[in-house]
Design goal:
This is NADP-dependent oxidoreductase domain-containing protein. The chain is built from 11 helices and 16 strands. Strand 11 and strand 12 form a beta hairpin. The protein has one domain: TIM Barrel (Alpha-Beta Barrel), CATH 3.20.20.100. The protein is of the alpha/beta class and about 375 residues long. The longest helix has 23 residues. An 8-stranded parallel beta sheet has the order 5-8-9-10-13-14-15-16.
Length: about 375
């Protein structure tokens, strides 16, 4: 009798569990809360759900995805962070799986080969090249008009591609690899960019780290208008005047370093707030079941900026693209706007005495 009772109890439990499981089907649990002792890891971890990234129209008729994966690894106390053998390749692969279609890179990052391998692997599995948008950049040592096309051909060889979707002049400042300045006029460089586009090596062309006056000079000469300007944009450096100028000129803005000084482990002690645990930002993030970095990215999206979040961590790559399923209120945007301090995390003061240095000459 005892054994029969035990068997019946087991059957009852199994039936009950199946009933609960059946009821749970179709319920989408999108969020897990993951506590952490580190302030820089105050994240709500989303389960992997492929994002649908919208596109924006460039003035030349091409579409550009509204968010991109950045592949610049940054600097540390020892200088430039050198990429490991395949860490960027893995990050790009994860990003494409997560819904990214736009990858931003550059010759000077020394990762074009890794980006290319990841793209080739995805294309081999059915991803279409035309569904991806690849941006790369001309480095400062190739500013002569005659050097632009060969430099782009080198990037294409690194990437294993026939063309890129967007090619940018990385800086208006010319500098040879031995460290001496190249005083080539960026207007000459821009003429080389136009040649590269006419050859079909890139579909669109643009500039990076140019100021308004430098862009105006290109336009006053009657040259093709840049389709894109890439600059630093984040909560501490919102650049409203530059954004308004680009909107008037129909130039799209891509924003690098979109997290600014949010992370304690990356912010200088002199950097203004906010940090990732700022109470006002945490309150907004909790309201939408998002992370503070996601709120920062969403704010840039609502400013019309194409943010370039960088990460080598799978979960964060997936988080950073999940910013198109909520909207901020005007009051929340006002809170985020209040953090603007015109503070650059990448001022590049080492080029301060170059005649084409693009930023405010502050001490």
């Amino acid at each position: 009798m005892g054994m029969l009772t035990s068997v019946l109890a087991i059957i009852f439990i199994a039936i009950s569990l199946k009933t609960v499981t059946d009821k749970m089907k179709g319920i989408r649990l999108s969020w897990q809360f993951q506590p952490s002792v580190r302030k820089e890891d105050l994240y709500i971890i989303p389960k992997a759900v492929r994002a649908n990234v919208p596109t924006l129209k460039l003035h030349d008729g091409h579409d550009i995805p509204a968010l991109a994966l950045g592949t610049w690894l940054g600097m540390n106390a020892k200088g430039r962070i050198e990429p490991a053998a395949n860490e960027v390749e893995q990050a790009v692969s994860w990003a494409i799986d997560a819904g990214y279609t736009h990858i931003d890179t550059a010759l000077v990052y020394k990762v074009e080969d890794q980006v290319g391998r990841a793209i080739a692997a995805k294309i081999a599995k059915g991803v279409k090249r035309e569904d991806l948008f690849i941006t790369t950049k001309l480095w400062n040592d190739a500013h002569a008009q005659s050097a632009v096309v060969p430099a782009l051909r080198q990037s294409l060889a690194n990437l294993g591609l026939q063309y890129v979707d967007l090619y940018l002049i990385h800086w208006p400042v010319g500098q040879f690899l031995n460290g001496t300045y190249d005083y080539t006029d960026y207007v000459e460089t821009w003429r080389g960019m136009i040649e590269a586009k006419n050859l079909g090596l890139t579909r669109s062309i643009g500039v990076s780290n140019f100021n308004q006056q430098q862009i105006d000079r290109l336009l006053e000469l009657g040259l093709e208008k840049p389709a894109v300007l890439q600059v630093e944009i984040n909560l501490n450096l919102q650049q409203p005047e530059l954004l308004a100028y680009c909107a008037r000129q129909d130039i799209r803005v891509m924003g690098y370093t979109p997290f600014g000084s949010l992370f304690y482990n990356k912010a200088l002690k002199t950097a203004p707030p906010p940090r990732i645990d700022d109470p006002a930002l945490v309150e907004i993030a909790n309201k939408y079941h998002k992370t503070v970095p996601q709120v920062a990215l969403r704010y840039l999206v609502e400013l019309g900026v194409i943010p370039l979040p960088k990460s080598l961590t799978k979960s964060r790559i997936e988080q950073n693209v999940q910013v198109f399923d909520f909207s901020l209120t005007q009051a929340e945007r006002d809170v985020l706007k209040s953090f603007d301090r015109n503070y650059r995390t990448i001022p590049q003061y080492k080029w301060l005495d170059h005649p084409y240095y693009p930023f405010e000459k502050k001490n």
